[in-house]
């Protein structure tokens, strides 16, 4: 008997409201992402994240220019499970945080090779097209990508089947593709994505 394909994890990023976190929980989303980059239209403070309940969803903080101390403090204050490093932070930052709770972002479109062993090891590598561009990159660049990995960048229910024809990531990360407006999620769009995984 053929083994069942491994479940693809779903991360919904850019959560700004309790109602969207509750929706994610109800629909079986695996990870809720919170963006701590002040210039983002989906920016949220650690204090507000601390007040949002997610129950079984893993909590991920997205960090750009923050230093190690700021990240460590936010991990505690916002009750985060993972720090997603979106600012090309150094290996020393990964080691200081503990790789087991780091999601490290790599930008294949910038020439960064996805085919490498993570040093130091991290929980997941996330391949993205850029800083909140909402655009997809050439997924063929992920051929031979080191696992475990997520894919982000312009994903939605319409193009997700095309991604899954090219590769089968461990997880997918959606933001604008499941929104009505920046920071306002659509239960219907999240459900459409869940049905494809």
Description:
The chain is built from 6 helices and 10 strands. With 197 residues, the chain is an alpha/beta fold. The chain has a single domain, classed as Aldolase class I (TIM Barrel, Alpha-Beta Barrel), CATH 3.20.20. It has an 8-stranded parallel beta barrel. A two-stranded antiparallel ribbon has the order 9-10. It starts with 8 loop residues before the first strand and ends with a helix.
Level-2 CATH architecture: Alpha-Beta Barrel
Share of residues in helices? 10-25%
CATH class group: Alpha Beta
CATH fourth-tier homologous superfamily: Aldolase class I
Indicate the overall shape.
globular
> Can you tell me the CATH topology?
TIM Barrel
Percentage beta strand: 15-25%
Structural class category: alpha/beta
Unreliable spans? none
Mean pLDDT: 91
Give me some keywords for this one:
197 residues, TIM Barrel, two-stranded antiparallel ribbon, 10 strands
Mind sketching the topology for me?
Blueprint: E1 9-12, H1 18-26, E2 31-35, H2 46-51, E3 58-63, H3 68-77, E4 82-85, H4 91-97, E5 102-106, E6 124-127, E7 149-152, H5 160-166, E8 171-174, E9 179-181, E10 184-185, H6 187-196
Parallel strand pairs: 1-2, 1-8, 2-3, 3-4, 4-5, 5-6, 6-7, 7-8
Antiparallel strand pairs: 9-10
Structure described in brief:
The chain has helices at residues 18-26, 46-51, 68-77, 91-97, 160-166, 187-196; strands at residues 9-12, 31-35, 58-63, 82-85, 102-106, 124-127, 149-152, 171-174, 179-181, 184-185. It has 197 residues and is α/β, with parallel strands linked by helices. It has an eight-stranded parallel β-barrel with strand order 1-2-3-4-5-6-7-8. A two-stranded antiparallel ribbon has the order 9-10.
């Amino acid at each position: 008997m053929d083994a069942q394909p491994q479940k693809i994890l779903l991360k919904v990023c850019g959560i700004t409201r309790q109602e969207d976190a509750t929706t994610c929980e109800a629909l079986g989303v695996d990870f809720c992402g919170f963006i701590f980059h002040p210039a983002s239209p989906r920016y949220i403070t650690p204090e507000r994240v601390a007040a949002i309940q997610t129950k079984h969803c893993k909590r991920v903080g997205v960090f750009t220019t923050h230093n190690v101390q700021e990240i460590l403090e936010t991990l505690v204050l916002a009750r985060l499970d993972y720090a997603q490093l979106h600012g090309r932070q150094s290996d020393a930052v990964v080691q200081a945080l503990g790789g087991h709770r780091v999601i490290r972002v790599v930008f294949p479109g910038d020439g960064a090779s996805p085919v490498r062993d993570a040093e130091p090891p991290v929980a997941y590598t996330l391949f993205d097209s850029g800083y909140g561009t909402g655009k997809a990159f050439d997924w063929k660049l992920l051929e031979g990508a080191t696992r475990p990995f997520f894919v982000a960048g312009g994903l939605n229910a319409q193009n997700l089947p095309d991604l899954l024809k090219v590769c089968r990531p461990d997880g997918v990360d959606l933001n604008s593709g499941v929104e009505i407006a920046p920071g306002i999620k659509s239960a219907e769009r999240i459900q459409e994505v869940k049905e494809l995984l």
